[in-house]
Design brief:
With 39 residues, the chain is mostly beta strands. Helix content is 0%, strand content 28%. The protein has no helices and two strands. Strands 1-2 form a two-stranded antiparallel sheet. 0% of the residues are buried.
Length: 39
């Protein structure tokens, strides 16, 4: 396979042929304002 340039959080981490991604439920708390009603 051809290596592909990769970034993590905007930082260049080099070229990779293989990367593994894992989903971690409830690992990130997201805070956002409630939508305004009536618009």
């Amino acid at each position: 396979d051809t290596p592909v340039a990769c970034q993590i959080d905007g930082d260049y981490v080099g070229e990779r042929e293989i990367m593994r991604f894992t989903a971690v439920p409830d690992a990130l708390a997201v805070v956002a304002p409630l939508p305004k009603m009536g618009k």
